[in-house]
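It is worth pausing here to work through a concrete case rather than discussing structure prediction in the abstract. The textbook approach is simple: state the sequence, then state the predicted structure, then interpret. We follow exactly that order.
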Amino acid sequence: QVQLVESGGGLVQAGGSLRLSCAASGRTFSRYIMGWFRQAPGKERESVASINWSGGSKNYADSVKGRFTISRDNANNTVYLQMNSLTPEDTGVYYCAVKPIGNSWSYWGQGTQVTVSS
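Step two, the predicted structure:
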């Protein structure tokens, strides 16, 4: 059974940093794309960042480019999201997800709350 467990969320002041982690289990994810999404109150879930299996290809939402960095450790089936220069607009529930290449996002974590105070 596939499980994704996020951690690292919390309350931080504007300008601060957080590092999210997502531990995946249940299979080997080295050939899967891994990503982070977020959902702010009253808004739809949006893609934040994604990374391919080798880590050589990364994509970011325009709103987080230059501030967030996604990385992964295939040996430990873990994906990270380093978030710097946080603003209140970054507040939301952050979810990690994985998908096989060419398919839709198949597995989701339960989410971790990130709150940025002004």
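Step three, interpretation. DSSP finds no helices and eleven strands in the chain. Residues 70 and 113 are 18 Å apart (CA to CA).
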